[in-house]
Amino acid sequence: xxxxxxxxxxxxxxxPPLSGTARVPGDKSISHRSFMFGGLASxxxxxxxxxxxxxxxxxxxxxxAMGAHIEKHDDEWxxxxxxxxxxxxxxAPLDFGNAGTGSRLTMGLVGTYDMETTFIGDASxxxxxxxRVLEPLRQMGVQVVQAAPGDRMPITLRGPxxxxxxTYRVPMASAQVKSAVLLAGLNTPGITTVIExxxxxxxxxxxxxxxGANLSVETDERGVRHIFIEGxxxxxxxxxxxPGDPSSAGFPLVAALIVPGSDITIENVLMNPTRxxxxxxxxxxxxxxxxxxxRNAGGEDVADLRVRSSxxxxxxVPAERAPSMIDEYPVLAVAAAFAEGETVMQGLEELRVxxxxxxxxxxxxxKLNGVDCSEGEASLTVRGMPGGKGLGGExxxxxxxxxxxxxxxxxxLVLGLATEKPVTVDDRAMIATSFPEFMGLMTRLGAVID
Length: 450
Ligand code: S3P
Description:
With 450 residues, this protein is α+β, with helices and mostly antiparallel strands. 28% of the residues lie in helices and 26% in strands. α8 runs parallel beside α10 and α10 packs parallel to α12. The longest helix has 13 residues.
């Protein structure tokens, strides 16, 4: 794998105005789920627009190892699934590389099978907490045969003869945990219930319904969601067009806002309201972002985004918004570095358990590049420098540490497009996990990155 190789640094430099039209790759969350649900369903699933990043390919390999047939014909992925309840025990450990979503959802998917499955990953994934998924699985009767201290990978699960349906209240705002329990419910007799006090991305619910699962959602008077799934029903293959990933769109979007004179359009971006927190925040900061051609495609809202360089102002981002932009804080912090005044981001506790401790990684990278910021336990405050004067780190000769985290690498390369001095990151390799086209797409828009 690329990330076992020698680190490949990259440097971004102050760039001329960005211009042109771009399409970001398919949404990562939907792509993982397309492979999983297609691999599980009876009959054929056809997918276009799939993100062909390393993380999603790992999920595809795992589904193949458990009996799904997955092939690519021209631009289309064609899957013949096993049928719900008919996954096979894999012959070797499932290696999920860097992918938290792939591994946690698959633990749910196969945990309740009467078989043994081992999960391994890279150094970043092996340091991430898996107890949040193992805890509800244990309640359903799943045995954790092996785990590293702190419920970390490598992990071996052994399912019970018959799993027990549970009612589970998700203790943190996590779509991965919610999804893992729902997927475990697919192979469990009766009704499994997930209570979600804070709404997170709802791709699992929407897509499972599309595949024919008996799933319903009730929202009570306090806004708490109760999700019910009936196990052991039939899933039927679907045709899926994956829309562009709003999390990936965040990088060219912020780049165009901060590089003076820029005017770009990003086409076909997913606009599901559980994913649009960054857009809202940047608009509140004064970002000139026009939402063009809003439309519905395959059950999801999508639109094109025209973005022009803007004079940004600091804002306070409320904690309640975090679930709808959880992966976008690193790049928002970059936008904040060029805003007039202070941007305060709250409710960031989950950032500490992403591909890296993103709160620390962002604060350290910003400080290294002369950006005035302070890191709290679960908050980040950035005091911006419009025009980027004096910012950038090359002079110190020290690269930003990316800690095997794709979004840290991309965020700091965006920073360097508008700082006075260049910005270097220690390793670009992990970008391939979610956005393999990043370098080409950005340089075609006019960004200077080498
Ligand atoms: C995801 C959920 C989020 C997000 C991740 C994708 C998903 O993780 O950060 O990139 O597809 O369900 P958490 O569930 O840990 O918040």
